[in-house]
Amino acid sequence: MSTYPFSTVLSRGLLAGAAAGVTGAVAALLIVEPQIESALVVEEARAATGTAGHSHDEELVGRAMQVFGGLVATVAVALCLALIVAVVFAATRHLLPGRDDFRRVGLLAGLGFVVVALLPAIHFPANPPGVGDPDTVNQRTGQYLSFIIAAAAVSWLALLAHRRLAGWARPAPYRTVVAAALAVVGYALLLALWPATGVDVPADIPAALLWEFRLASLAQLATMWTVLGVVFGLLLTPARTGDRRTTLANVA
Fold it and tell me: Per-residue DSSP letters for 45-113?
Protein backbone atom coordinates (compact mmCIF):
# COMPACT_ATOMS: atom_id res chain seq x y z
CA MET A 1 0.00 0.00 0.00
CA SER A 2 1.47 3.36 -1.03
CA THR A 3 1.45 6.10 1.59
CA TYR A 4 2.07 9.81 1.92
CA PRO A 5 5.32 10.37 3.84
CA PHE A 6 5.17 12.96 6.58
CA SER A 7 7.43 15.25 4.54
CA THR A 8 4.91 15.12 1.70
CA VAL A 9 2.08 16.10 4.05
CA LEU A 10 4.14 19.07 5.24
CA SER A 11 5.09 20.18 1.73
CA ARG A 12 1.50 19.99 0.51
CA GLY A 13 0.37 21.85 3.60
CA LEU A 14 2.87 24.61 2.86
CA LEU A 15 1.64 24.80 -0.74
CA ALA A 16 -1.88 25.22 0.57
CA GLY A 17 -0.59 27.82 3.01
CA ALA A 18 1.02 29.77 0.19
CA ALA A 19 -2.27 29.79 -1.71
CA ALA A 20 -4.14 30.84 1.43
CA GLY A 21 -1.58 33.55 2.16
CA VAL A 22 -1.78 35.08 -1.29
CA THR A 23 -5.59 34.97 -1.21
CA GLY A 24 -5.64 36.43 2.29
CA ALA A 25 -3.28 39.21 1.20
CA VAL A 26 -5.54 40.08 -1.72
CA ALA A 27 -8.56 40.09 0.60
CA ALA A 28 -6.70 42.34 3.03
CA LEU A 29 -5.82 44.74 0.24
CA LEU A 30 -9.37 44.89 -1.10
CA ILE A 31 -11.56 44.88 2.02
CA VAL A 32 -9.39 45.64 5.06
CA GLU A 33 -7.06 48.37 3.79
CA PRO A 34 -9.91 50.77 2.86
CA GLN A 35 -11.12 50.59 6.48
CA ILE A 36 -7.58 51.20 7.77
CA GLU A 37 -7.25 54.22 5.48
CA SER A 38 -10.49 55.65 6.87
CA ALA A 39 -9.26 55.09 10.44
CA LEU A 40 -5.96 56.79 9.64
CA VAL A 41 -7.82 59.84 8.38
CA VAL A 42 -9.57 60.08 11.74
CA GLU A 43 -6.30 59.59 13.62
CA GLU A 44 -4.54 62.28 11.56
CA ALA A 45 -7.40 64.70 12.16
CA ARG A 46 -7.17 63.98 15.87
CA ALA A 47 -3.42 64.67 15.85
CA ALA A 48 -3.87 67.86 13.84
CA THR A 49 -6.33 69.24 16.37
CA GLY A 50 -4.09 68.29 19.30
CA THR A 51 -6.60 65.85 20.84
CA ALA A 52 -4.33 62.85 20.45
CA GLY A 53 -2.40 63.62 23.62
CA HIS A 54 0.97 63.62 21.88
CA SER A 55 2.77 65.31 19.06
CA HIS A 56 2.32 64.00 15.55
CA ASP A 57 5.76 62.64 14.68
CA GLU A 58 6.81 61.92 11.14
CA GLU A 59 6.34 58.27 10.20
CA LEU A 60 9.54 56.22 10.12
CA VAL A 61 8.02 53.90 7.51
CA GLY A 62 5.89 55.19 4.65
CA ARG A 63 2.33 54.04 4.18
CA ALA A 64 3.18 52.08 1.04
CA MET A 65 5.82 50.09 2.89
CA GLN A 66 3.41 49.51 5.76
CA VAL A 67 0.87 48.03 3.34
CA PHE A 68 3.52 45.89 1.65
CA GLY A 69 4.80 44.68 5.02
CA GLY A 70 1.27 43.78 6.07
CA LEU A 71 0.75 41.72 2.92
CA VAL A 72 4.05 39.90 3.43
CA ALA A 73 3.11 39.27 7.06
CA THR A 74 -0.23 37.81 5.94
CA VAL A 75 1.53 35.29 3.71
CA ALA A 76 3.99 34.42 6.48
CA VAL A 77 1.19 33.89 9.00
CA ALA A 78 -0.70 31.68 6.53
CA LEU A 79 2.40 29.54 6.00
CA CYS A 80 2.87 29.14 9.76
CA LEU A 81 -0.77 28.21 10.23
CA ALA A 82 -0.56 25.73 7.34
CA LEU A 83 2.47 24.10 8.91
CA ILE A 84 0.61 23.75 12.22
CA VAL A 85 -2.48 22.36 10.46
CA ALA A 86 -0.37 19.81 8.56
CA VAL A 87 1.33 18.59 11.74
CA VAL A 88 -1.94 18.45 13.68
CA PHE A 89 -3.68 16.65 10.81
CA ALA A 90 -0.97 14.02 10.58
CA ALA A 91 -1.07 13.46 14.34
CA THR A 92 -4.86 13.44 14.76
CA ARG A 93 -6.11 11.99 11.50
CA HIS A 94 -7.38 8.91 13.33
CA LEU A 95 -9.56 11.15 15.53
CA LEU A 96 -11.09 13.22 12.73
CA PRO A 97 -14.45 11.97 11.47
CA GLY A 98 -14.93 11.85 7.72
CA ARG A 99 -14.96 9.36 4.89
CA ASP A 100 -11.87 10.79 3.21
CA ASP A 101 -8.97 13.16 3.85
CA PHE A 102 -10.69 16.04 2.05
CA ARG A 103 -13.51 16.02 4.60
CA ARG A 104 -11.09 15.52 7.50
CA VAL A 105 -8.96 18.47 6.42
CA GLY A 106 -12.10 20.53 5.92
CA LEU A 107 -13.21 19.77 9.48
CA LEU A 108 -9.77 20.63 10.86
CA ALA A 109 -9.64 23.90 8.91
CA GLY A 110 -13.14 24.74 10.11
CA LEU A 111 -12.13 24.14 13.71
CA GLY A 112 -9.01 26.22 13.11
CA PHE A 113 -11.12 29.12 11.88
CA VAL A 114 -13.46 28.86 14.88
CA VAL A 115 -10.63 28.61 17.42
CA VAL A 116 -8.14 31.09 15.94
CA ALA A 117 -10.45 33.58 14.22
CA LEU A 118 -14.16 33.45 15.04
CA LEU A 119 -14.16 33.01 18.83
CA PRO A 120 -11.37 35.57 19.41
CA ALA A 121 -13.19 37.98 17.09
CA ILE A 122 -16.24 37.69 19.34
CA HIS A 123 -14.36 37.99 22.63
CA PHE A 124 -11.47 40.23 21.52
CA PRO A 125 -12.83 42.10 18.47
CA ALA A 126 -10.25 43.67 16.19
CA ASN A 127 -9.83 47.42 16.28
CA PRO A 128 -8.64 49.85 13.60
CA PRO A 129 -5.71 52.24 14.13
CA GLY A 130 -6.39 54.86 16.76
CA VAL A 131 -8.31 52.50 19.05
CA GLY A 132 -6.79 50.86 22.11
CA ASP A 133 -4.34 51.71 24.86
CA PRO A 134 -0.71 50.82 23.93
CA ASP A 135 0.06 50.30 27.63
CA THR A 136 -2.23 47.24 27.78
CA VAL A 137 -0.88 45.48 24.67
CA ASN A 138 1.03 42.80 26.61
CA GLN A 139 -1.93 42.06 28.86
CA ARG A 140 -4.34 41.82 25.94
CA THR A 141 -1.92 39.63 23.98
CA GLY A 142 -1.58 37.20 26.89
CA GLN A 143 -5.34 36.95 27.31
CA TYR A 144 -5.79 36.49 23.57
CA LEU A 145 -3.26 33.66 23.26
CA SER A 146 -4.43 31.86 26.39
CA PHE A 147 -8.01 32.07 25.11
CA ILE A 148 -7.00 30.41 21.84
CA ILE A 149 -5.20 27.63 23.74
CA ALA A 150 -8.29 27.04 25.88
CA ALA A 151 -10.56 26.97 22.79
CA ALA A 152 -8.21 24.47 21.11
CA ALA A 153 -8.43 22.28 24.23
CA VAL A 154 -12.23 22.35 24.03
CA SER A 155 -12.07 21.27 20.39
CA TRP A 156 -9.67 18.46 21.26
CA LEU A 157 -11.98 17.20 24.02
CA ALA A 158 -14.93 17.24 21.63
CA LEU A 159 -12.97 15.14 19.12
CA LEU A 160 -11.99 12.71 21.88
CA ALA A 161 -15.63 12.44 22.93
CA HIS A 162 -16.61 11.65 19.35
CA ARG A 163 -13.96 8.96 19.29
CA ARG A 164 -14.99 7.45 22.64
CA LEU A 165 -18.62 7.23 21.49
CA ALA A 166 -17.62 4.95 18.61
CA GLY A 167 -19.09 1.96 20.44
CA TRP A 168 -22.36 3.72 21.23
CA ALA A 169 -25.36 1.80 19.94
CA ARG A 170 -26.56 4.76 17.93
CA PRO A 171 -26.01 5.84 14.30
CA ALA A 172 -22.97 8.01 13.55
CA PRO A 173 -24.96 11.29 13.31
CA TYR A 174 -25.84 10.96 17.01
CA ARG A 175 -22.14 10.95 17.91
CA THR A 176 -21.57 14.00 15.74
CA VAL A 177 -24.43 15.89 17.39
CA VAL A 178 -23.20 15.05 20.89
CA ALA A 179 -19.60 16.05 20.10
CA ALA A 180 -20.75 19.27 18.44
CA ALA A 181 -22.99 20.09 21.41
CA LEU A 182 -20.08 19.57 23.82
CA ALA A 183 -17.92 21.89 21.73
CA VAL A 184 -20.61 24.58 21.58
CA VAL A 185 -21.18 24.42 25.35
CA GLY A 186 -17.43 24.61 25.96
CA TYR A 187 -17.02 27.58 23.61
CA ALA A 188 -19.98 29.35 25.25
CA LEU A 189 -18.47 28.88 28.71
CA LEU A 190 -15.16 30.30 27.50
CA LEU A 191 -16.88 33.35 26.04
CA ALA A 192 -18.85 33.88 29.23
CA LEU A 193 -16.10 33.28 31.78
CA TRP A 194 -12.81 34.21 30.12
CA PRO A 195 -11.52 37.64 31.22
CA ALA A 196 -11.23 40.31 28.58
CA THR A 197 -9.59 43.70 28.71
CA GLY A 198 -12.08 46.37 27.77
CA VAL A 199 -10.98 48.81 25.09
CA ASP A 200 -12.25 52.38 25.18
CA VAL A 201 -13.27 53.48 21.71
CA PRO A 202 -12.60 57.21 21.14
CA ALA A 203 -15.67 59.27 20.41
CA ASP A 204 -14.29 60.36 17.04
CA ILE A 205 -14.27 56.78 15.70
CA PRO A 206 -17.57 56.25 13.83
CA ALA A 207 -19.46 53.13 14.91
CA ALA A 208 -19.91 52.15 11.25
CA LEU A 209 -16.15 52.28 10.66
CA LEU A 210 -15.48 50.17 13.75
CA TRP A 211 -17.88 47.40 12.76
CA GLU A 212 -16.94 47.45 9.09
CA PHE A 213 -13.29 47.03 10.06
CA ARG A 214 -14.11 44.11 12.35
CA LEU A 215 -16.28 42.41 9.74
CA ALA A 216 -13.66 42.96 7.05
CA SER A 217 -10.94 41.49 9.27
CA LEU A 218 -13.06 38.42 10.00
CA ALA A 219 -13.94 38.03 6.31
CA GLN A 220 -10.25 38.09 5.42
CA LEU A 221 -9.51 35.33 7.94
CA ALA A 222 -12.49 33.30 6.73
CA THR A 223 -11.19 33.55 3.18
CA MET A 224 -7.71 32.45 4.22
CA TRP A 225 -8.92 29.47 6.24
CA THR A 226 -11.33 28.38 3.50
CA VAL A 227 -8.61 28.39 0.85
CA LEU A 228 -6.23 26.58 3.20
CA GLY A 229 -8.75 23.82 3.91
CA VAL A 230 -9.91 23.38 0.31
CA VAL A 231 -6.45 23.41 -1.30
CA PHE A 232 -4.84 21.20 1.34
CA GLY A 233 -7.73 18.74 1.11
CA LEU A 234 -7.45 18.59 -2.67
CA LEU A 235 -3.70 18.05 -2.49
CA LEU A 236 -4.29 15.05 -0.23
CA THR A 237 -6.95 13.62 -2.53
CA PRO A 238 -5.76 11.00 -5.07
CA ALA A 239 -6.00 12.17 -8.66
CA ARG A 240 -7.96 9.04 -9.53
CA THR A 241 -11.12 8.81 -7.47
CA GLY A 242 -11.23 5.04 -7.90
CA ASP A 243 -7.75 4.58 -6.47
CA ARG A 244 -8.20 3.77 -2.77
CA ARG A 245 -4.65 2.60 -2.23
CA THR A 246 -3.15 6.01 -1.55
CA THR A 247 -3.38 6.83 2.14
CA LEU A 248 -1.66 9.06 4.62
CA ALA A 249 1.29 7.66 6.50
CA ASN A 250 0.53 7.10 10.17
CA VAL A 251 2.84 9.53 11.96
CA ALA A 252 0.82 9.92 15.15
Answer: HHHHTT-SSS--PPPSS-HHHHHHHHHHHHHHHHHHHHHHHHHHHHHHGGGS--SSHHHHHHHHHHHHH
**Beta-ladder partners of 247:** 3
Evaluate whether 46 touches 130 at the Cβ level (below 8 Å): yes
Number of CB atoms found within 10 A of residue 22's CB? 16
Cβ atoms 231, 21 nearer than 8 A: no
DSSP letter at 170 equals S
The tens digit of pLDDT for each residue in 116-149 reads 999 999 998 888 776 666 666 777 788 889 999 9
User: 21-58, pLDDT tens digit by residue?
Assistant: 999 999 999 999 998 888 888 777 776 676 554 444 55
> Could you tell me where the DSSP H helices lie in the chain?
6-27, 33-48, 63-92, 101-113, 119-123, 137-164, 172-193, 207-235
